[in-house]
């Protein structure tokens, strides 16, 4: 049987995809900070935010190193150092970024962890 564009299966898949997107957005609870008034024609550097990786007892050290290398573009030695900070101290600062980049990287970490069935968490806080 040939499926058409408007088949019930396509609608179900579409609404499942929308539901997943909404669920991801709700789970992130990331809200953009309020912007301060802009000066008269002055261009200033964007505010920086810290991206912090949080420890848990289930995520493998290898996965944390991989996330740091792939998402945050850290070399192996720096990724190892940050991973050990997370493991020993309970959290580790990964880097400082403008809000948009910090929020995006945090979402990427959560998506990768979810895909690999790890509870790895990452937070963003003002510098």
How far is the first residue's CA from the last residue's CA?
58 Å
How does CATH name the architecture of the domain at 47-127?
A: 2-Layer Sandwich
Main pleated sheet: 3 strands, antiparallel
Number of H- or I-type helical stretches:
4
Kindly identify the CATH topology of the domain at 47-127.
Ribosomal Protein L30, Chain: A
Q: Per the principal axes of the C-alpha atoms, what is the gross shape?
A: flat
Query: Which structural class do the helices and strands define?
Result: alpha+beta
DSSP summary, beta strand count: 3
Query: Please, what is the CATH homologous superfamily of the domain at 47-127?
Result: Ribosomal protein L7/L12, C-terminal domain/Adaptor protein ClpS
Could you characterize the architecture of this molecule?
The protein is α+β, with helices and mostly antiparallel strands. It has a domain at 47-127: Ribosomal Protein L30, Chain: A (2-Layer Sandwich), CATH 3.30.1390.10. The chain is built from four helices and three strands, in the order H-E-H-H-E-H-E. The protein has a three-stranded antiparallel beta sheet. The longest helix has 21 residues, at 8-28. It is flat and about 50 Å long. It starts with 7 loop residues before the first helix and ends with a strand.
Summarize the structure.
The chain is of the alpha+beta class.
């Amino acid at each position: 049987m040939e499926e058409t564009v408007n088949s019930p299966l396509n609608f179900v898949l579409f609404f499942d995809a929308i539901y997943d997107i909404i669920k991801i957005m709700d789970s992130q609870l990331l809200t953009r900070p309020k912007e301060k008034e802009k000066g008269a024609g002055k261009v200033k550097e964007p505010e920086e935010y810290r991206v912090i990786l949080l420890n848990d007892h289930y995520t493998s050290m290898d996965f944390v190193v991989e996330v740091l290398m792939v998402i945050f573009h850290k070399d192996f030695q720096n990724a190892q150092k940050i991973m050990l900070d997370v493991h020993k101290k309970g959290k580790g600062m990964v880097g400082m970024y403008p809000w948009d980049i910090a929020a995006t990287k945090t979402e990427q970490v959560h998506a990768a962890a979810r895909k690999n069935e790890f509870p790895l968490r990452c937070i963003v806080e003002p510098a």
